[in-house]
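Entry type: protein chain
Record version: 2
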Amino acid sequence: MSNRLVPNRNVIFNIARTYEALAEYPDAFRYYVQALDLEPNASRRPAIEEALARIRPNVAVINVTTDPPGATVYINRRDLGGRGNTPRLLGFQPGKHKIIVDLEGYEPAEVDNVEAKTGEQTNVAIKLKRIVGTVRVVGETAGTTVRVNDASGPPACTAPCDLTLPPGRHRLYLAQEGFQPSEQDVNVAAASTVVARYRLSPLTGSLVVNADERDALVEVDGKPMGFTPAVLNVQSGQRRVRVSLRGFRPVEQTANVVASQQTRIDISLRQLEEVEAASRTAEAVEDAPSSVTIISGQELRAMGYPTVAEALRGVRGLYTTYDGSYTWGGIRGVSIPGDYSNRVLVLLNGHPINDTWDGLAFLDQSARTDLEDVERIEVVRGPGSLLYGTGAFVGVINIVTRSRPTSVGASVGVGASQYGFIRGRGSVQLPFGRDSGMWLSVAGGHGQGRDYFLPIPLDPDTSDEESPADKWKNGDPNARGADHFNVGTLQGRLWYKSLSAQMWLNQRKKSIPTGASQTIVGDDRTFYRDTRGFFEATFAPRISQTFSSTTRVGADIQLYDDTLWLESNGARTVYDVEKYQDTFLLADQRFEITPIRQLKITVGAEGQLHLLGRMRIEETECSAGTCTSGPLILPVNGDPNDEDLFYEHPYQLLAGYGLVDITPSDRIRISAGARLDYYNYSEDGLSFNSGISPRLALIVKPYEGGNLKIIGGQAFRAPPIYELFLEIGDLRPGYDPAAKETVLPERVTSGEVEFTHRLSSTLSVLGAAYVNYMTNVIQQTGSFTADEPGRYNNIDEPTLVLGAEAELRREWRQGWMASASYSFSRARTLRKENDPRPETLPNSPEHMVSVKGAVPLLGKALTLATRLTVESSRLDKTLSRTDPAVIWDVVLSGQADVAGLRYNVGVYNVADWEYEGPISPQFTATRIAQPGRTFLLSANLNF
């Protein structure tokens, strides 16, 4: 009664002693525990502890603990009152009891059937479940720090997030760099979720972004914000700024934007020149293990080049020759008349398009109607057999068309150039999604051609009584109105993520007025028709960071036919019809392994299965109203009366190659590799391999802005079917062409040193020196007549080419461009002493100079572009030299963004410089006039 009126620890101790004296030990234990909890005097606590120990053998003890502590403990029923707060020792009579605990903010808990035994302690530990609600914090800006009830307390979470809080009212404090802080109250209910939405007001400043090229895209933290020059209102804080423009390297820079202040950054863009043909993967030109020049899309549009050959003229070390049938390309002094440019490999997006019959490299309208679909042209000098096999002897030219457009569009265009050539075109592009789409284009044209005067020698068999026209070996040397041609091109691409496909088909039918192959000069019934096409599918997944695969499969079709009028007069008519057909399948599998960042290993295998490889030449002779026909090419024991008989040479090609790239540092790259090709002409019993074609390159950047390339390697050219088996002019029935002298593959060993010094972000100077040592060079001999059969054989002596090049270039900036280059090349066959044959390689100019430039006159609306090329004389087959050539081209171009119109007006060979080019032994003439002054006009509408 006293303790109830005035609680006192001494009274509680006395109550415990009283219960002990009454032998009511559970109650005594209870009050002794309370007395011990309330006793602050350490000197008196041992007496209480001694009392507890004394009576403990007579009591069943239950020790109740909770997590968290502080819960009120009830025994059996709540109405009996609480027994204190946990942790709590309780004394009981032996038996089973119910333990009940309560703590504010937590769900009540009970433990039944707790058995208490006299003299023993039973431990009861209870985990309490908190009564809470959920606050879901969401807003417009991620990364916001959330604090609860205390603005200076530790962060509770980073939004968007979920907070678990006890029921009741709470205050949220929200803060993020670059934004005004904010507060928000929330009412939390038990076992429910409340959403707290917030919106922070950004702190902003002005960001001025300027670049040395207009209309570059500016992205801030990954979001497009405008185009240079740009003044942007952006959030304060550290901002990541990215400036990008097609054709230039993107530049990223960090800007610290201060609220209510202006921050300025100036960016210098550097032209992005990437090449794929050097290593079969996209890489920067300075990192490519070859000497590379890129003819950019800007130059193609500014100059309005009508053909690939025109675009190549003026590239250092390159020159072209037009023989009235095809345009041949030479690289570094090598373009022997009659080789059909077969020492240069031409690719379309990495797919070879050279003819498989004679290796012909298509560079004019025989390759495509126009260049409107072309994004750039890659010129890779030096041996390329490591990656491409035969034909990549002195260089590789890769025509790269448009990639993967991201918007729906269409275009139409018309143009006129080069002696009455008129063309039209149309294209469409359809992205299906972010990673899929297609584009397709079709173009066609007709050319009137030009008139020729050919220096054809008189026929020694004519008499003085015959007319002047009969005295010419191939008719009147004046060819008028017989140079017309038609051309059409169909091309397209389709892609879905890592899978892509491309298709190309081109046909040109051209009349030949120049007396080629002993035809009648000026007879437009003589024509060549080339049809070339392919379909290729490529699957190039990136399997992991260290492993990727490229699978390429394709099918090519090559058709050629001609009609050659050899003689036509009142008494006798003779003409030949030639047909060549080849259909082949190809497959290429390549793997790239990058075990560490400094090492990349490329291995691959390629196979080609040529199903046809066949030719038929039929001659028709009409005399006195009677015509007879018969084949001129027959296999051994072939039936001349079999009209369907073709001279067939199907064959197979297998190749394997490997390449290792080592980059021990950002300043050094070592690239080494080799390839082996095997040819099997199964039906002819002939097979051979190319031998190993190695390449080694060292690329060193000794200082910022300096780039040194040291390159060495070998390449080969396997003789195509035309050179390997045929002796034109000696193709009589029963003759076995395989019995002719075996033509061996050509080989070249090349070495080069190239150094580039960058004077500024736009200006660079380059110097290069090279040597090419060629063996088994194949040459065309004879006039391809019955009297003097045309043959191909190897030159016994090696050929040595020494050369040097220099170039000063100012890259494209805001419509401005300038370059000047000089190329020296001396190609000599190493003849023995007193050998009367010429040492100098035919059709090989020693000196070439080129100057190019572009100047914006009215911004994008009008640009003046010009090109001046100078070439020294060349040796023809009579050992006489042609005159030097000085060709000046001027083009005005522009575009109107609103109407989507792009246009060109220009003049090629402004001075109408008259010059000639050497031509092959198939012509009676020794040289032919090259194009004089021609006019250019084109217009394209883009929708």
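Comment: The two ends are 103 Å apart (CA to CA).
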